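Complex 480.
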Amino acid sequence: MHLFSGACESRTPFLHLLFWIFYLGFSWALPTALHGHSADETPPEAAMLLSQYVQIPSVTGQEKEAGEFLARYCQDRGLHLRVFTDEPDSYNFAASLYPLDEGRPNIVLLTHIDVVPAGDPEDWTYPPFSGTIAGGKVWGRGAIDNKAMGVMQVMSLLRFVDLAAEQDLPYNVSVLAVSGEETGGYTGAGIIVKHFLEELNPVVVYGEGGAGLTGIISHRPGIPVFGISVSQKRVLWIAIESEVASSGHGAVPRAQYPSREVAKAATALLEARPKISLSPTVKSALREIGRHERGVRRLVLRNIGFFGPVFGPTLRGDPLIAAMLANTLTLTSITSTPGAYNQLPAKARAVFDCRLLPETSDERFLAHVENIISPFDVSLQIIRNTPAAPVSETGPYYRALEEAVLTVYPVAMALPLMFVATNDNRFFRRQGIPAYGLLPAIMPEELIESIHSVDERFPVEFLEKGIETYTHLINLLLNK
Ligand SMILES: [Zn+2]
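Predicted structure with zinc ion bound:
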């Protein structure tokens, strides 16, 4: 945060004045009962909106109330509302500068309404659905993932309502808020793409994915690096199973029995060293970082294709880097038919959550798995297999986001990134619509760790910066 103190100091007195007029102009509308805030330090509108939005629990399957709240907020302030589906567990809407039925090419800002469960409220500093504003942050489940982004998108889009009424803009711009992202997107983005894509008419989608991280450039660790995701790994869930016709007694172990076979095959899979494979996106990101490095790091990163294999053990040592450079297998479940502890189970099963690099074919990966488990008496099953999505090009829509980020954060760098988990962007990419993932905020490690964990919280300062970033982005695209 110290990074930006310079920028604040350089604000001219005139801007300061404007800031205070804007700030006071809103303050009349704000409720006075604030947690951890005295009346003379009322948080800005965006923080209040985020706090209220967080206060409506929207754990996947219960999105409607929070969705309606955000939809109403948009509609009351002049955006055109289209509710695509209106179910308790599938509430999906677009709030747009123009009605969708005008058919304008649409710039879509994508956010998800749902959040993951909060776990034990006792573990939280403030109750998870309190939306407490304290210490310059909004606290609660969903504060980062993904309600901060929704608030930034809405607040920036509202700045264009008057302009859209006065002028015939070349594009529509919509905030698309969806359900079910945390459980695969099938009650949200999946439905939109299947049934409403033509109506939405997106030319580009800006959703979640990367964020600004510090500590990446070794000799200038304070410089934030914004990773904009242009591709993602895909999910392949597999199970290995072993069965025997009848169970036996634990006192007389056989050479082969299901739990033993599954344990041995699973161990073999876990111990197989993943092959380092550089996706073009990862390669160009590392090269870009290398451009800002010095000495040996510069040499290695600029020529990562050549040096990558040499540094395999080092690269594999960091879980995130390893996930970017290789297909991964994670053992997420081991089960066997229940029985007494002296009984051999008739059936045993291990499930692996595998994440494949965009360039890996299922056939090649499965052949690799088959090869490793072949010495054991197990069978291989595919539980879930998601289709590949093309990599979004780093063309004009990508560059507009990069430019917007670098306008708000002049001392930063941006680069294309491969996202190691999955999110809703893939639905659009599969339809050939470019989708770029970025939370336009600098995320220190302790904030990243709070996502899907306890004490999730988002700094008010970055809400404002995020709104500025989206405002620049929309401006750039409308004037293209
Ligand atoms: Zn999310």
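The chain has two domains: 2-214+389-478, 232-385.
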